[in-house]
Structures are given as structure tokens and as C-alpha cells.
């Protein structure tokens, strides 16, 4: 069902309201039969998008309210979260920063609602990776992350005015030799990198960016 403006060829063009066969509705502007310009799309499942469209795709700036109560406000490219935006998750956590292909990618800040802790730094395909700071209530960690875990050199900075330098080391997994052959190889348990302290100092300007190779 469609109610609204059409062009001389009879295509939806200008402002209109439509109900789609699946029960979704759209109210906004059309160009030559396609949703283009600003509009509001309501999904039957309770989700809602309001913002810019280009040729039936979310493209430009817009806000998406998801059925679980989460919400994204920011840039879209061809129906995907891409550019800069803020996501409020159903559990109250928030991410503000860069996106690519619907994933956190680039520089961004993730705030954990339960603890108030904050990850400020680099992301790759939705995972914490690269130079970053993890900021807690009375101390913070500055270093590099790989696959969502700190790895390599870094330091803890304490509000009392001192620093603990060291590195996160990937533990070596020792495979036990079984007397009897196991039927199935059990997948190795994920290992947490271990923190090894090298020194404690007063506050210093070291940052993980210091180690980045010169371009």
C-alpha cells in the first residue's frame, strides 16, 4: 500500500507513506521509486530507523533502535554502520568512535557500565587491537592489545603517582604426554597473557605509540 507523491512515470517520487507486504512501514521521501532522502522505517519486530536513505539503503546519518533496546546513532554507508557513531548496548555499555562494515574499527572508546572502566584506543574488525589505554577507577594500563588482550610492553599508572612497568607475556602451553591415546584432542583452553613486572618508577611519558615503526 502506498499513499503519496508520484512522478509523471507513476513511480513513487517525493513524500509518501508505505506499508510493505511483510508488515514494515516507511514514511519519508522517495526518488524514482526508491527510498532516498530522509525517512523513518518501522520494522514489524519493533526496530526503527530514522535518518538518511539512498536508493533503498541506509546511507548518510541516521539512528537505529534495535529490538533488544540497544541503539546506534551515526554514519551509514550502503546499509552498514560505517564512519563515526555511538552505540548504546542493551547492557548499558557504550562505544563511541569509528566503524567499518558494521564493526568497531579504527579509534574508539568503549565504556563498561558495570565497572565504569574505559578502553580508549585502537580496534580491528570489532576487536581491541593496537595501542590503547584501559582506564579504571584509580589506575590505568597503557600498552598494546592483540585479539582483545594486552600483550607486550606496557605500564600501569597509579593515581598515587607511580608507575609499574613490565610486559604481558603469552604463556607457553605445555602438552602433557598421555600414556593412553585420547579419543579426541581437547581444544586448548584460552590462555591469559601473564603480567611480568620490570620496574616501578615515578610518572614517565612512555606511550605505546613510541614503539610504532616510523612510517
UniProtKB/TrEMBL annotation:
<feature type="region of interest" description="Disordered">
    <location>
        <begin position="1"/>
        <end position="27"/>
    </location>
</feature>
<keyword id="KW-0206">Cytoskeleton</keyword>
<feature type="region of interest" description="Disordered">
    <location>
        <begin position="177"/>
        <end position="215"/>
    </location>
</feature>
<feature type="compositionally biased region" description="Basic and acidic residues">
    <location>
        <begin position="1"/>
        <end position="14"/>
    </location>
</feature>
<dbReference type="GO" id="GO:0031514">
    <property type="term" value="C:motile cilium"/>
</dbReference>
<dbReference type="GO" id="GO:0005634">
    <property type="term" value="C:nucleus"/>
</dbReference>
<keyword id="KW-0282">Flagellum</keyword>
<keyword id="KW-0963">Cytoplasm</keyword>
<dbReference type="GO" id="GO:0035082">
    <property type="term" value="P:axoneme assembly"/>
</dbReference>
<dbReference type="InterPro" id="IPR003409">
    <property type="entry name" value="MORN"/>
</dbReference>
<keyword id="KW-0969">Cilium</keyword>
<protein>
    <recommendedName>
        <fullName>Radial spoke head 1 homolog</fullName>
    </recommendedName>
</protein>
<keyword id="KW-0469">Meiosis</keyword>
<dbReference type="GO" id="GO:0007286">
    <property type="term" value="P:spermatid development"/>
</dbReference>
<dbReference type="GO" id="GO:0051321">
    <property type="term" value="P:meiotic cell cycle"/>
</dbReference>
<keyword id="KW-0966">Cell projection</keyword>
<comment type="function">
    <text>Functions as part of axonemal radial spoke complexes that play an important part in the motility of sperm and cilia.</text>
</comment>
<dbReference type="Pfam" id="PF02493">
    <property type="entry name" value="MORN"/>
</dbReference>
<keyword id="KW-0677">Repeat</keyword>
